[in-house]
């Protein structure tokens, strides 16, 4: 588990000479090895033409277990990354783009998105042990940034908000809740990470608090899925994790 947390923390390193002045979340202790927000919470969605910002805090453990042995970590870093949404860049809080074991740092993804889509980050990482040995590998992360079209500020102010899914991860069913101030019907859709629709229904919402219960079909597999609410004026896309029955 600790090794997985180390792997996830790598997404905080830029392959370019970009230095971020971000500040790690002070509420996260050094004992909480991993990346925050975690993959269940995910990164915030973006909108075309609207400035985007996602702060990421990482805690790198001092050691990990490899082939049954405890290995002290010198540092880990990112050799390359790909599939950020067009218009966005990633900057690490260290100029070298490497962090030593037992430290805490941060990175920030910023910019103005230009292209709609669902973007899953892919990384090539390098681990350096205290002994000087190192290894590199290509990593598919569970972090996806969803970019949606600009629907206009006035429509957003007069539509729905406070969208969340509970529990997350879920097994038998998930409840998607939101506040609504519009009379428009809402299309509720669930997608896999390659964009295939696996569920869709039209909701007739009431003014104020609303709840949608989603029960997955028996043929879907465990993993991360995207759910979308669309009333024709505003689109909100978020993620949840299906853990299986």
Structure explained in plain terms:
This protein has 245 residues and is mainly beta. The chain folds into two domains: 2-148, Immunoglobulin-like, CATH 2.60.40; 153-242, Macroglobulin (MG2) domain (Immunoglobulin-like, Sandwich), CATH 2.60.40. Helix content is 5%, strand content 51%. It is built from two helices and 17 strands. The protein has helices at residues 2-9, 153-157; strands at 34-36, 46-47, 52-59, 63-66, 69-82, 88-92, 98-100, 104-111, 117-129, 134-148, 160-166, 174-180, 186-191, 197-203, 208-214, 223-230, 235-242. The strands form four sheets. Strands 2, 4, 5, 7, 9 and 10 form a six-stranded mixed beta sheet that branches. Strand 4 and strand 5 (69-82) form a beta hairpin. It starts with a helix and ends with a strand.
Topology at a glance:
Blueprint: H1 2-9, E1 34-36, E2 46-47, E3 52-59, E4 63-66, E5 69-82, E6 88-92, E7 98-100, E8 104-111, E9 117-129, E10 134-148, H2 153-157, E11 160-166, E12 174-180, E13 186-191, E14 197-203, E15 208-214, E16 223-230, E17 235-242
Parallel strand pairs: 2-10
Antiparallel strand pairs: 1-3, 3-8, 4-5, 5-7, 5-9, 6-8, 9-10, 11-12, 12-15, 13-14, 13-16, 16-17
């Amino acid at each position: 588990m600790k090794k997985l947390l180390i792997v996830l923390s790598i997404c905080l390193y830029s392959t370019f000479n970009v230095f971020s002045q971000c500040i790690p979340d002070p509420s996260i202790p050094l004992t909480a090895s991993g990346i925050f927000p975690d993959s269940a919470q995910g990164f915030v969605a973006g909108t075309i033409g609207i400035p985007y910002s996602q702060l990421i805090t990482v805690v790198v453990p001092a050691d990990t277990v490899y082939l049954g042995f405890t290995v002290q970590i010198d540092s880990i870093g990112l050799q390359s990354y790909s599939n950020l949404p067009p218009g966005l860049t990633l900057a690490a809080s260290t100029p070298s783009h490497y962090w030593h074991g037992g430290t805490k740092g941060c990175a920030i993804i910023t910019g103005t998105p230009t292209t709609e889509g669902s973007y899953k980050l892919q990384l090539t990482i390098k681990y350096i042990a205290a002994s000087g040995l190192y290894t590199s590998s290509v990593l598919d992360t569970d972090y996806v940034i969803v970019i949606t079209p600009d629907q206009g500020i006035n429509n957003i102010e007069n539509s729905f908000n406070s969208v969340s899914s509970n529990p997350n991860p879920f097994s038998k069913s998930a409840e998607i809740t939101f506040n609504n101030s519009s009379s428009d019907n809402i299309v509720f859709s669930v997608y896999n990470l390659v964009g295939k629709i696996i569920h869709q229904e039209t909701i007739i919402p009431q003014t104020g608090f609303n709840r949608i219960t989603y029960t997955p079909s028996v043929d879907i597999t465990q993993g991360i899925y995207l759910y979308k609410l669309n009333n024709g004026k505003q689109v909100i896309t978020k993620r949840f994790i299906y853990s299986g029955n």
